[in-house]
Amino acid sequence: MKTFYIETFGCQMNVHDSEKVVGTLLARGYRQVATPEEADLVLYNTCSIRDKAEQKVFSRLQQFKRAGNGKIFGVLGCVAQQEGERIFERAPHVSLVCGSASYNKLPDLLVQIELGDRRVTGLDLDTDETFETPLTRRDNPFRAYITIIEGCDKNCAYCVVPFTRGRERSRPSSSILEEVRQLAEAGYTEIQLLGQNVNSYRDPSPAGWNFATLLARVAEVPGIRRVRFTTSHPVDFGRDIVEVINANPVLCNHVHLPVQSGSTRVLERMQRLYTRQDYLRRIEWLKQSPRDIAISTDIIVGFPGETEEDFAQTLSLLEEVEYDSVFSFKFSPRPNTAALALDGQIPEEEKGRRLMILQERQRAIQLRRNAALVGRVEEVLVESYNPATGQWVGRTSQNRVLNFTHPDGPAAALAGRYLDVRVTRAGPNSLAGEAVL
Ligand code: 5AD
Ligand code: SF4
């Protein structure tokens, strides 16, 4: 029997794609192993959002440059799509290069490899199909990722995704609901809807649902207790989405709404299609909700032409919104993107300085917001037990990590259960508490 090893980099879309690839391979009789050394087939599912992520795969491949001894190496995902056949030049021991838009061809490509083809590629970006497979092998027994839309039709000046994942393709609502029902029957209680821009979901079937309608329908499926979604583009984030959240407690108290910059001037250069004011209007909708909706975001510092004044506007936005969490990055120039040609590139050191300032500010905000939760009782979905700390790890509806003790310790067997926990302490990135008995 053939064995395979897969390592995944990047976003949840990639994590979920790997779950589908694993299912496909298992169905073909491959067995998954835990290290590349043991494997006949070594796969890297890659990310190219920033240069650092891209470098990782090449350093992995480098390790095996000579010691390949009969192993087959494959590069999947965003670096595969972006670099294509150039990968064979940079790493001649690679045999398979396949981007996410071509994963439905993977079984055929594997057959070709099994028959002895030295180099096979799946690089077609113009496929209408989404890679849906009933064979998905999910990593988590309670929370399931479901792809609802692939690709991205926006043109953000910094972003490789339109080049690595292709045009937007929405999945029919009937197929999504059918999978949610099956997952509920299989014991999953949390669903996370995935797409590069879920807000622009448009049901291709005659029903023609938009994202808000799909959300409402998914949340109604019996057995599903939590629904999350990621990621959103502010332009397509309509008030109807907030109204659906307001009306249905199954939809979690959390919205991830990437802003990228607090300066309208920079947003324009980024081709983000909204101003600071437009963005803040959406934040207002969320804050006016009777639900206590946590808000998180993504920010890029040091975009070409970002002045001190622009950066100060990003810092002031942090204070104005009071985000519950922020993912922040130094701008990284990417192939094919419009930002490559912009003047005013910022030196690495200066980007690093701005990033540190921003993260320091945000840390204080998070500490303050988390501290305000001390004394409150929160319902968590319990994920696992951490023997190192003697605590169970749970997640609140707001997506906060809440580590808590239970008198029965590990014997309580809480994984997958919903439980009330009293918050007793707060840090910048997590809460601590004790189970309410
Ligand atoms: N450089 C730095 N960060 C980037 N992101 C996307 N492209 C780049 C880039 N070229 C960030 C954005 C996006 C998140 C997933 O990654 O903030 O929302
Ligand atoms: Fe990375 Fe973007 Fe590809 Fe996800 S879609 S793996 S974040 S480049």
Could you walk me through the main structural features you see in this protein, from its secondary elements to its overall organization?
The radius of gyration is 22 Å and the shape is globular. The chain has a 6-stranded parallel sheet with strand order 2-1-3-4-5-6, sandwiched between helices. A 5-stranded mixed beta barrel has the order 15-16-17-19-18. Strands 7-10-11 form a 3-stranded parallel sheet, sandwiched between helices. With 437 residues, the protein is α/β, with parallel strands linked by helices. It is 33% helix and 22% strand. Helix 12 runs parallel beside helix 13 (348-371). It folds into 3 domains: 3-122, Methylthiotransferase, N-terminal domain (Rossmann fold, 3-Layer(aba) Sandwich); 143-371, Alpha-Beta Horseshoe (pyruvate-formate lyase- activating enzyme), CATH 3.80.30; 377-435, Nucleic acid-binding proteins (OB fold (Dihydrolipoamide Acetyltransferase, E2P)). A hairpin with a 4-residue loop joins strand 15 (377-386) and strand 16 (391-396). The protein has helices at 12-27, 51-63, 77-83, 86-90, 106-114, 161-165, 173-185, 211-219, 239-247, 264-269, 276-288, 308-321, 348-371; strands at residues 3-8, 31-32, 41-46, 72-76, 94-98, 120-122, 143-147, 149-150, 169-170, 190-194, 226-230, 254-256, 294-301, 325-330, 377-386, 391-396, 401-405, 418-426, 431-435.
